[in-house]
Every structure is written in C-alpha cells, then in structure tokens.
What does this fold into?
Amino acid sequence: MKYYTFGNNLPNGSGDRWSGVRFWLTTLLVFWTFSAIGLGWLVNSFFILIGLITIVPVIAFFGLQWWVKRSIVTAECPVCSSSFTASKLSQFQCPSCGEPLQEHQNKFVRMTPPGTIDIDVQVVD
Ligand SMILES: [Zn+2]
It folds into this structure.
C-alpha cells in the first residue's frame, strides 16, 4: 500500500485516479464562484487565454510554412539543368555544378557581374 502525500495539485499517474476529477471539480467550483461574484470576465479571459495558447502555435506553424514557401524556390540550374531548392533571400551555388546563382522571378539565373559580357563557351570535340 502506497501513500501519496503530495496533495491534489501534483498529478501522479498511477496512484490516485480521482485526483484528476478533483482537479476539474475544483476548477469548476472556482469558475462558478468567480461567475457568482461577478467575475465572469475573468473566466472568459481565462478561456480566451487558453484559446490563444492553443491557436497561436497552430497559426505560427502555418505561418512558418507559408513563409518558407514564399522564401524558397525550386527551379532548374540554367547551366546544368539540375533541379534543386534554394532560398530567395540570398545568393547560392548550384549543388551540382557549383555555378553561383540567384533567384529571379521564380527562376535561377546566373550571377553575372555588371559590365561582364556573358559568353556561352561551346566545346567542340
Ligand atoms: Zn548547375
């Protein structure tokens, strides 16, 4: 026989299966008391807070996905035609051929320094 002397506030899963019920009964009683003495707004704000705590991570999750989708682009390398994903926010190198590239209108373009004439070198066997 084990005795749990922690009281009702500390949940200990296997021991006291009524502690959860007592917790909710106490919570209901506290809410009812608050409502009875005109502190319904406190109860409401508590539920709004619970709602916010629940909703905010969901919004943050989808917001992050939206942001990632907006800030990355999948396209083909203009040099070697290999497809890969890169950030729109910075310059990057093609993982296949190492060509320095940047994003332009959802396509990858070569980073040609201003004033440089871009010549395609054709190797003829
Ligand atoms: Zn490439």
Q: What stands out?
A: The mean pLDDT is 81. The beta strands are 72-76, 83-87, 92-93, 100-104, 107-110. Residues 31 and 43 are 6 Å apart (CA to CA).
